[in-house]
Amino acid sequence: MSSYFEVAQFLLLTHLFQISIIRLSVSVFVLPFLNPAGKDQSLLRGNVPMKKHTVISTMMLFGGLLGLLCTCADDLIARQEEKKGTEEPVLSLEDAEKQAAKPKGEGEYTKEEYEEFQKHLNNPDLKARAEGLIQFIKAHPKSKLGEYGMTVVPTILPQLYEQKNMSALGSVAESFLELKPEDLAALGYAVEAFYSEKDYTKAAKYGEALYEKKPTVQIAQLLAQSYDQLKNEPKFAVYAEKCTAELPAKDSFYYSVKLAHYYVTTRKDVGRSAAHFQKVLAAYGEEVPPGYNATSWGQEKAFAYSIIGRNAFDRKQFGAAVAAYNNSLKLFRQNDEAFYYLGMSYWGANETFDALKAFAKGYSLNKPYSKMCRERMEILYKGLHNGSLEGLDSVVRAAAAEMK
């Protein structure tokens, strides 16, 4: 824009310079003949009388314009020379083809590569565009076009996410991660996409890689749920523990329930199971949690109290054990194991009469722990009655009546 203005300015000054020459010529050479000396200048009707100061002003204008014209011309020439040094030459198609045909150095590309890249870049299908660019990058690892492609593919991932095209998102994210395994955004999109598609193996694979770099409770939740779907209890426990450590009791409720059952059933770790059952009871208490009804929640609580009681008994905390087992039996009275350990806890607390009653009730249920209840009941009764079992039957009958 500025170059056009400069040329126009130069042409205007040239025009004004020509006018000044004509005016000076007329003043000096023509008007004296039209108006000889001594004649009345009024006879020149319609003409401006020519005086000395007019000629002088015309000459001054002439000189000024000449100087300005020379300055403008010099400046314009200097600017054009400066531009010649900075502007890049524009190659014709023929020149471009010749350059593309030359052996390329590192980072350069041929005309055919450029056309191939543009074909992928302009593909309206997002998945096909990304896959084409990734294929190009793999085929031309040293090309500058590949470097540009590495910045384009990550912009396609959020577009696929917005379209809720999780199948395509997972495929593109996985392919991109082959080129850039450390990319956090691609890892995140891969995890969410594969989890949405129920491909829990891949969700867990990329989830672990993401958690290693960005350990958040949200990623831990997704990993715990993925491993739960895969029936991988040890891996589930690893990430569920992280969830229960950071989330509020209600938010981590289902993780705590599963962990409590896993530890007592699979790992035989009563202490860790009891710790999680404490969290379970603290989360809802008398309130029925989502997914339960009054009956199923009562059964869950009964089992929880029995595990808490067993943990207390193992630690010789007999008072706490008695309280926990009594809470369990209020909810489920047919638990022969609970009666057995309640009797043992009373005995440990030197409450022998209550211990006999607990053993007698457990015996009356005629279940697996009933035999052990009978054995402990007889030992305790003999110790209280000089080795005699006389009168024990009445204790058993009374306990059985209470159980009806």
Structural account:
The chain is mainly alpha-helical and 404 residues long. 75% of the residues lie in helices and 0% in strands. It is built from 19 helices and no strands. It has helices at residues 2-34, 52-86, 93-101, 111-121, 126-139, 144-162, 166-179, 184-196, 200-213, 217-229, 233-246, 253-265, 270-284, 294-314, 318-331, 336-348, 352-364, 370-384, 392-403. The longest helix is centred in the N-terminal third of the chain and has 35 residues, at 52-86. It is rod-shaped and about 110 Å long.
Quick summary of this structure?
The protein has 19 helices and no strands. It has helices at residues 2-34, 52-86, 93-101, 111-121, 126-139, 144-162, 166-179, 184-196, 200-213, 217-229, 233-246, 253-265, 270-284, 294-314, 318-331, 336-348, 352-364, 370-384, 392-403.
Describe the protein's topology.
Elements: H1 2-34, H2 52-86, H3 93-101, H4 111-121, H5 126-139, H6 144-162, H7 166-179, H8 184-196, H9 200-213, H10 217-229, H11 233-246, H12 253-265, H13 270-284, H14 294-314, H15 318-331, H16 336-348, H17 352-364, H18 370-384, H19 392-403
